[in-house]
Amino acid sequence: MSLEIAILTISDSRTEASDTSGAYLAEALATAGHQLHEKVICRDDKYLIRALVAAWIADPGVDVVMITGGTGFTGRDVTPEAVLPLLDKKMDGFGELFRSLSFDEIATSAIQSRAVAGVANATVVFCLPGSTGACRTAWQQIIEAQLDINTKPCNLATLLPRFNEI
Predict the structure, then answer these.
(1) Are 157 and 119 in contact (CB under 8 A)?
(2) SS3 for 115-163, per residue?
(3) Which superfamily does CATH assign the domain made up of 4-162 to?
(4) Tell me, what's the pLDDT at 142?
(5) Hey, is 116 helix, strand or coil?
(6) DSSP codes, 56-112
(7) Among 1, 25, 39, 124, which is most exposed with the fewest C-beta within 10 angstroms?
(8) What integer pLDDT is reported at residue 1 of this predicted model?
(9) Euclidean distance between CA atoms 162 and 160, whole angstroms
């Protein structure tokens, strides 16, 4: 099952040429057989981020939104604040599992990650740290399997059609 995935890189300094995290995610999803819907770089602005993500959530052609960057603690890190109000349901296990896996790689620095995920309007949204290593960890150890209909006992790809059930 091929999914339509949008990628948003949050950065005041990255360009298309220097966006290694967004490039990694685009390559990884293509290798897994998914389609890149759109890839955008946006500066660290809560309302611009929220507007872009809200548009993708409203678009029935977008199944998944992956956001990289803006999940730390500096004053410009506002991705969770931009995205959380849009979510219908938060996926607490994603952030918990991501930080646990990150601990093996970056030790106690893992506590500085505010990686979050959830579902909004039948669209899965992942907010990842901006480093390419963090994106690789999230993709290879969590997201790739959850977007694969063959993952047992369950996966997000199979649940997508049921997210808007009444």
Answers:
(1) no
(2) CEEEEECCEEEEEECCCHHHHHHHHHHHHHHHCCCCCCCCCHHHHHHHC
(3) MoaB/Mog-like domain (3.40.980.10)
(4) 98
(5) strand
(6) HHH-TT--EEEEES--SSSTT--HHHHHGGG-SEE-HHHHHHHHHHHHHHHGGGGGG
(7) 1
(8) 86
(9) 5
| Residue 39: per-residue pLDDT | 98
- Residue indicated by tokens 């057989």: 33
Structural domain spans, the chain: 4-162
Q: Can you give the pLDDT at residue 7?
A: 98
Residue 137 has pLDDT above 90, yes or no: yes
| Residue 90, amino acid | K
Q: pLDDT at residue 45 above 90?
A: yes
The confidence score (pLDDT) of residue 166 equals 80
- The CA–CA distances, whole Å, from 98 to 17, 32, 86, 93 equal 27, 20, 21, 8
Q: Give every CB contact of residue 15 below 8 A, 6+ residues apart in sequence.
A: 41
Residues 7-36 pLDDT 10s: 999 999 999 999 999 999 999 999 999 999
Token pair listed for 59: 């678009």
| The two structure tokens encoding residue 44 | 């660290």
- From the list 20, 58, 61, 59, the residue with the least C-alpha distance to 41 is 20
Which residue is it, tokens 């992942």? 126
**Peptide bond before residue 153 is cis, with ω within 30 degrees of 0:** yes
